[in-house]
Amino acid sequence: WPLIYRQTLEYNIVGLASVGGTLIAMTEEYAYRIAGSDPLTLSIGRIDTHYPCLSKRSIVNMGYGVIYATHGGLALWNQTTGLTLATKYIFDWDIWNTTIDPETLIGTFYGDKYFGTHSTGSFIFERDEKVGGYFVTIGEKYDAAWVDPTDDVYYYTKDASGDICEWDAATSVLKAGEWKSK
Predict the structure, then answer these.
(1) How far apart are CA 23 and CA 99, in angstroms?
(2) Which is nearest to 111 in space by CA: 35, 68, 60, 74?
(3) What integer pLDDT is reported at residue 93 of this predicted model?
(4) Is 4 helix (H, G, I), strand (E, B) or coil?
(5) pLDDT computed for residue 5 by the predictor
(6) In 32, 38, 48, 75, which residue has its Cα 20 to 30 A from 83's Cα atom?
(7) Cβ contact 157:142 at 8 Å
(8) DSSP characters for 53-109?
């Protein structure tokens, strides 16, 4: 990248995501909004809500915005509301860090939902403006996930064996989940 186009931020960048023509840079302290059509004239603005990104693998473009793990919940940035906690109606700030291990969170977008797994468990979060969202704890903890865009199938690996599993396969046995809302 030519030196003339390089930009610096106050804090170390954890990850980047693009949504709606805007680049969001999540750092160890704040998120930054970067916009522009020419590298020489980029506009960089710090989002002054202190939601540090705790896991680069938690960053997911949900279509309506970018979600990532922070203290107190899943942070959501979109052009309409700015930066908020998507899970604020489901989790109190202090309960999030004792329930979820945000520093190990791996997120994936599938079926308009945020699938998350971390060192102690997994969950599915679905945003809903009317009730604040739905949070379902699931028993299937995994290490990595990928959605095949050609057939819209969600694949994951769940242990050191390297076996690849298909989410909600017709041949798999249904498992229990624990549902939580506000």
Answers:
(1) 30
(2) 60
(3) 87
(4) helix
(5) 87
(6) 38
(7) yes
(8) ---GGG-EE-SS-EEEEETTEEEEEETTTEEEETTTTT--HHHHHHH--GGG-EEEE
State how far the Cα of 127 lies from the Cα of 114, in Å rounded to an integer: 9
Residue 5, classed as helix, strand or coil, is helix
Q: Which residue has the tokens 């979109």?
A: 78
Counted residue by residue, the chain has a size of: 182
CA distance 58 to 50: 17
**Sequence-ordered list of residues with C-beta below 8 angstroms from that of 137, at least 6 positions apart, any chain:** 121, 122, 123, 177, 178, 180
pLDDT tens, residue by residue, 128-157: 888 888 999 987 788 889 999 999 999 989
| CA–CA gap between residue 61 and residue 71 (Å, rounded) | 19
The pTM (predicted TM-score) of the whole model is 0.89
Of residues 16, 25, 61, 27, the one with CA closest to residue 44:
25
